[in-house]
Amino acid sequence: MYDHLLKNYGVSGENIIVHIQNDIITIEWSPQEKDEYFDAQFQRSLRLLTDGKLEEARFIMEDLAFRSPKAPNVLYNLGMVYSEFHELDIAIDTLNRCVNIVPLYSNAYVALGVAYGRQGKLKEAAWFSPLT
Known about the structure:
The protein is mostly helical. It has a two-stranded antiparallel ribbon. The protein is built from seven helices and two strands; from the N terminus they run H-E-E-H-H-H-H-H-H. Strand 1 (about 15-20) and strand 2 form a beta hairpin.
């Protein structure tokens, strides 16, 4: 069971505690602050994006966003990847999380406009257009 959780959710063993009692499973997880591993994985995901390997980059960024849900650069890049895969609702949600953390993240606003435009929601897209 424990190995299944680690394999499928990518959480390191030092950050997770699994309690099983009376047919109830409780999972406690406390993310660590960003560390060298986080930074190295983020840089790796950016290289993968540059190389056009979006699916591989997405996998890493989803893990990083899970580990550190308030990392704006991760959320921005992950939102962009979702938008490229036309997973527009989750792209918009992810990008909104980014601008809620860093309200002046201008690239995230432009990405929101692009995502809304891809949905055909031109009024919403216009709110984020650099020309308006």
